[in-house]
Amino acid sequence: MVGTHKRTFLVTGGSGFIGSSFVLQSVMSGHARCVNLDKLTYAGNPLNLEALADHPDYTFFRGDLGDRDLTNGIFRDFQPDAVVNFAAESHVDRSIHDPGVFIGTNVVGTWNLLDETLRYWERLDGERREGFRFLHVSTDEVYGSLGPQDPPFHEGTPYDPSSPYSASKAAADHLVRACHRTYGLPVLITNCSNNYGPRQFPEKLIPLTILNAFQGKPLPLYGDGLNVRDWLYVEDHCAALRTVLERGRVGHTYNIGGRCERTNLDTVTTLCRLMDELFPESPHRPHESLMAFVKDRPGHDRRYAVDCSKIREELGWTPSESFESGLRKTILWYRANGPWVKSVQSGAYRRWIERHYGFH
């Protein structure tokens, strides 16, 4: 991206887990101004960005990508240098029970954003037009499932989604790519592996395990617990996104992973061991005794693994955290942020949103 002025990013879904980490990194480092457009669904939490409440380089709008007037007004008033699209429904279990919501947000919402971005980009000229980027943040789940001996997913792996969630993200990826090939919109796509870290909504495996372990509740594992995931610390992911935004080749896809394949059983066992070490006074030690196997979910992909050689060789990015160092930081964050946890678990933050924003 060209130019020496402090850039402005329009970040959609910036109050969620990964989006808020990206906004915090970008603003607190002085890297960019961020305009956050977020619908504030159940996983979008204003507390994630409480540290930026009075920061001059942060602006928040509550709204849906279907509100074209709002999106158009943001483009007009803030003149962003890039759009970073995190806005998505992302929980596989929820997509199985209510797929229409995922199609609405992940497919239709992405198209609405692309259409407004195209209109804005076509009005730019010179360096502003040349330097503009649309970064679409996707998932490795679009590639489907791997067998135990299969090579990891690479950027040319054919799409083979298994769930309504991954199918909706695959559709969004195709729309983004089509806007580049048809209209010339300068896009970048990233497909990441499973993220973990601070501020993750506790429906996902790692935060659910941590919080249940603190409380002595069962630690659920689907099926035999041998499903394999590649784990990526969220701060590493956001650093990779900034690298792609800076130096990625327009029209290209970059896979981002932690180079850290683990079975779910190994992941939970490692978490339990770390919690035993960090909290020797816990009445629930050994935490491993809390593990409980539950019925597997439909269409549960057996293994994901990501080949990150392209982003490493072209852009020089590699993850900084090991699995255990990232887990340790994550456990300690949840322990130190009791009010955030209590707010999320009790639903108090939802009531705050309703009062503050007039939730309808």
What is the level-2 CATH architecture name?
3-Layer(aba) Sandwich
Give a short account of the largest sheet. Answer: 7 strands, parallel
- The assigned structural class equals alpha/beta
What is the tally of helical segments? Answer: 13
What best-fitting shape do the alpha-carbon axes yield? globular
CATH topology: the name is Rossmann fold
**N-to-C SSE series?**
EHEEHEHHHEHEEHEEHEEHEHHHH
User: Could you name the CATH homologous superfamily?
Assistant: NAD(P)-binding Rossmann-like Domain
Please bin the fraction of helical residues. 40-55%
> Radius of gyration in whole Å, from Cα?
20 Å
Give the strand order of the largest sheet, numbering strands 1, 2, ... along the chain. 3-2-1-4-5-6-10
What average pLDDT do the residues reach?
93
Q: What is the terminal-to-terminal distance?
A: 39 Å
Name of the CATH first level: Alpha Beta
The percentage of residues in β strands lies in 15-25%
Count of spatially separate domains: 1
The low-pLDDT segments are none
DSSP strand tally:
12
